[in-house]
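Milestone 3.1: sequence recovery, worked example.
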């Protein structure tokens, strides 16, 4: 198995007795999830998705992906949060950080609508304006500002290049089945569309068309990805806090939280997992960070960040623990021999780069645990579509169980609305005039 979860480095912080002490709580949280009796139970469509997904829809996605591959040099994926992170994470996990720069038969893929940066939008426009383009616009609500602005810009570009009908042929919309502005536009202009089910929230949607269509365009095998998730579904279906890794991870997170650890750092020793960490941060941050509770989800890439925040992790405030993703893939690439040995590195000559990375991993885990930073461990021995699906399902299920243990609704995100309300008021959106006056007075008072 290419995925192994282990708590071997955490035994001096959390022992079997600690796990058994929360066993009833974990079982209750797991039961709540499986029996769909807890808060947010109308958002549990992801639980059985790997075994009950619509095969006809997957076939439609594969066909659309082939069409996109044949029609364009560049696919622009428009979306934010859960409508963006999973696809980008998967593409980088499988193809590495330089997918766009690699020689390949599939289109380059750029992500926009994930921020409100004028220069970022213009950079992507300039990169792709002379190329053949398709757009996959993704928004469950169909009303999110960031992707809606980006969609206006890229839809206009497509109309300018291909005319209204030609543009419609190149736009693929992923949105709600019935409601929202994007659904209306897809129906009005005849965009090929894919549905985000009502019972799957944004951060749990990577294994739906939200993630799967762009991932398929990159040439990755989405059926393998779903097979990986299905294997995780089976592996973590039963058992208890000692035998089920998913339940154990959820339990240890909560035990450490109660011991005063308020930050979890997800680390990886391969930059290809940078966006996987970003996806994970949204999953856990939006699911658990509410009601004044929750671990703050952070991330780091090693050994890069050992030369920046490594000092803090080793010796700063003792508020964190780490979940360490150890990518252990030996492709035989070696450190060269140098006859002059000016850098004194010949003791490494003929060792593989991965061998050095593994020793860095082992040394770091021991140093950090010595520094009172508990470490949990996930070892990955390949980076296939199957592995990504497996990892995603492991984290999704652990997050839901952990959220129920924490006593929150892991499937809502009420706090996300606060900035939107203020932004709309300050932008003078109709209906917000009272709030606008109040906010402007407050801002004025700060000067
Ligand atoms: O997890 C979530 O629900 C959010 O991050 C959303 O995915 C994000 O806000 C984008 O929303 P939408 O897909 O409705 O545009």
């Amino acid at each position: 198995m290419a995925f192994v979860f282990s708590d071997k480095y955490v035994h001096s912080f959390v022992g079997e007795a600690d796990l058994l002490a929360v066993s009833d709580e974990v079982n209750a949280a797991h039961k709540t999830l499986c029996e769909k009796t807890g808060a947010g139970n109308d958002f549990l469509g992801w639980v059985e998705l790997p075994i009950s997904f619509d095969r006809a829809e997957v076939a439609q996605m594969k066909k659309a992906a082939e069409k996109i591959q044949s029609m364009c040099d560049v696919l622009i994926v428009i979306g934010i949060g859960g409508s963006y992170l999973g696809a980008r994470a998967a593409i980088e996990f499988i193809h590495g950080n330089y997918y766009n720069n690699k020689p390949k038969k599939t289109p380059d893929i750029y992500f926009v609508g994930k921020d409100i940066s004028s220069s970022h939008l213009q950079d992507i426009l300039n990169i792709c304006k002379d190329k053949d383009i398709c757009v996959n616009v993704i928004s469950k609500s169909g009303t999110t500002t960031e992707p809606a602005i980006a969609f206006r810009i890229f839809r206009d570009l497509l109309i300018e290049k291909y005319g209204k009908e030609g543009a419609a042929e190149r736009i693929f919309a992923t949105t709600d089945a019935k409601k929202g502005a994007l659904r209306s536009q897809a129906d009005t202009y005849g965009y090929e569309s894919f549905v985000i089910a009502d019972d799957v929230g944004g951060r749990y949607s990577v294994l739906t068309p939200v993630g799967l269509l762009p991932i398929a365009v990159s040439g990755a095998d989405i059926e393998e990805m779903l097979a990986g998730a299905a294997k995780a579904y089976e592996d973590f279906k039963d058992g208890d806090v000692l035998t089920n890794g998913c339940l154990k991870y959820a339990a240890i997170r909560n035990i450490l939280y109660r011991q005063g650890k308020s930050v979890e750092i997800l680390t990886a020793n391969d930059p290809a997992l940078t966006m996987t960490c970003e996806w994970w941060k949204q999953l856990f941050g939006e699911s658990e960070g509410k009601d004044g509770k929750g671990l703050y989800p952070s991330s780091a890439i090693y050994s890069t960040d050992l030369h920046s925040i490594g000092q803090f992790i080793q010796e700063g405030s003792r508020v964190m623990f780490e979940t360490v993703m150890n990518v252990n893939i030996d492709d035989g690439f070696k450190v060269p021999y140098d006859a002059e040995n000016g850098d004194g590195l010949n003791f490494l000559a003929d060792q593989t780069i991965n061998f050095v990375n593994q020793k860095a991993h082992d040394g770091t885990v021991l140093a950090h645990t010595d520094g009172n930073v508990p470490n949990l461990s996930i070892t990955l021995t390949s980076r296939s579509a199957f592995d990504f699906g497996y990892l995603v399902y492991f984290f999704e299920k652990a997050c839901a169980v952990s959220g129920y243990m924490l006593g929150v609704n892991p499937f809502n995100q009420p706090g996300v609305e606060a900035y939107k309300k203020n932004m709309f008021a300050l932008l003078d959106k109709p209906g917000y005039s009272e709030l606008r006056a109040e906010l402007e007075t407050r801002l004025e008072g700060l000067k």
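The mean pLDDT is 97. DSSP finds 17 helices and ten strands in the chain.
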